[in-house]
Amino acid sequence: MALELIRKENDIKKLSDEQLGGLADEIRRFLIEKISRTGGHLASNLGAVELTMALHLTLDFPEDKLIWDVGHQSYTHKLLTGRSGGFDTLRKYGGMSGFPKRKESDCDAFDTGHSSTSISAGLGLVEARELLGQDHTVVSVIGDGSMTGGMAYEALNNASRLNSNFIIVLNDNHMSISENVGGISRYLNGLRTTQTYTEIKKGVEGTLKRIPGKGDRIVSQLRKTKSGIKQLFVPGMFFEDMGITYLGPVDGHDVRKLVKVLNEAKRVDHAVLVHVITEKGKGYRPAEENPSRFHGTGPFDIRTGEPAEKSATDSYTEVFSKVLTDIARKDDKVVAITAAMADGTGLAAFKKYFPKRFFDVGIAEEHAMTFAAGLAAGGMKPVFAVYSSFLQRAYDQTLHDVCLQDLPVVIAVDRAGLVGSDGETHQGIFDLSFLSSIPNMTVISPKNRWEMADMLRFAVDYPHPVALRYPRGEAYEGMKEFRAPVEYGKSEVLYEEADIAVIFVGHMAELADRVRTGIREAGYKCSLINARFVKPLDTQLLDRLSRTHRLFVTIEENVVSGGFGGQVLEYASEAKLPVYIRNIGIPDDYVEHGNVEILRREVGLDCGRIVEQVLRDYSEIKG
């Protein structure tokens, strides 16, 4: 087994040709077996096996720098740098990350998790290399899906001015998570058909160079002009028009061809883009047939590809999908927007029923938000469904284009709170803080599946910006008996007693209810309040509760800094309410990967610790 001989970086170079020939299949079998148990990103990794092998055959680690865009396709890179033993704990708490991590290995040059960043990061590493007088190679790998993100073009524009080597590998598998859309996708489709380009180019250049005394100068001039050699064969010549040499397309599953073109790229004295064609999910039929399903998967049956466990309860995303589709049947002004996440955000059903009112803008959250603002200004009712972690990228557009104009855009903030195995880059623990800071923004969060439906209907009808925040996973089915109408700015009083008031946000309902039970079992009275509205605060209720309660306990799955509890504390201070405030939330830090329940215990969002803290606080207050 060749894979067993790879115990550290650069060991791949010691393998014989025969061993290299079987290595790709070994890696695929290893990945399928391990990910079927742990879950993880399968399809993208299966498609990048030979590309990663070629990169490791042509680069020296850790001296050379390899940056993976998004980073979920770096599993083979981890294998080839001696981390095979970590795959049993992949994405588990305390185990190996599913993304590149500098603290995990010197061979991981840059932490990634969001798309369209690798060229910018690589360019920075190149300039640092030049300033420090070093001579290592820097390679940024970016997918064709990530090329729909505007940041990639900002970086390409900047990279075009380089006078030193910088290799950009375009890993083109026709996919991001959903199928790619837009002009760049059509452009790359055109390039994929130009399989003979490289051979033709070399032949023309070779002929010209043989002209005595003038050949090299003619080739140089042709490279600099927009009427150069490539213009004859490739429509648009987008990259070379920017001053970036284009090599390819090359078969991304042919290691020999990849090594040859990468070595050629290393000899270029400026930015060079290597266009590689790969197949997402290659080598495992279920992933080949349904790459979106196996983009990020839980444990599964290798034989069938079916999930190991199926939930009988709808997720919050599924509730959102069903209710929005129902709303749209009755209101033809409702439109839906996704940034390349139709399946993940539940908008695939909307697309099926209302294709003309569905918009996939590609991996471009910033554009999606301003596009939604334009739709709203034009008289439509846009709903932009986006993961909390990715919404961070559209903060300026939310503030400047949506809220400044007070436009009726609904932001469906999916995967809010702790999301688990994807780790620091994907935890949705900042949205309450950054959304609540924006004037004209309303922020709401449901306690269960029924309130989710009611809040979505409220948000679509509300003529101002609204962010509806909900978590990943099964929709809570408790507290069904509490279903007061959603009224703007009003909280929901579930139980009203005295002394201690527990005020929770959204999916903290079940935890808050258990906290209340623990407090009452200790002999204290306790009220339970569903905040519903994070912004605006229900200050009238806070005023009233302050007359009969001595301690407010806020519970939210968001960083405490700037979150709901901080707003309650600020108001209580300004209004001089005679209460003590205890804010329970996530500390001012990033939260690593792992099971959500384990992570909650680690950050202090577990019933036992909260009850202990509350009882200690109340004892001191009574003091």
UniProtKB/TrEMBL annotation:
Pfam families linked: DXP_synthase_N, Transket_pyr, Transketolase_C
Residues covered by the Transketolase-like pyrimidine-binding domain: 314-478
E.C. number: 2.2.1.7
Catalytic reaction(s) noted: D-glyceraldehyde 3-phosphate + pyruvate + H(+) = 1-deoxy-D-xylulose 5-phosphate + CO2
Binding site for thiamine diphosphate: 72, 113-115, 145-146, 173, 284, 365
UniProt region (Disordered), positions on chain: 284-307
Pathway membership: Metabolic intermediate biosynthesis; 1-deoxy-D-xylulose 5-phosphate biosynthesis; 1-deoxy-D-xylulose 5-phosphate from D-glyceraldehyde 3-phosphate and pyruvate: step 1/1
Textual note on the cofactor: Binds 1 thiamine pyrophosphate per subunit. Binds 1 Mg(2+) ion per subunit.
NCBIfam families: dxs, PRK05444.2-2
Subunit annotation: Homodimer.
Record-given protein name: 1-deoxy-D-xylulose-5-phosphate synthase
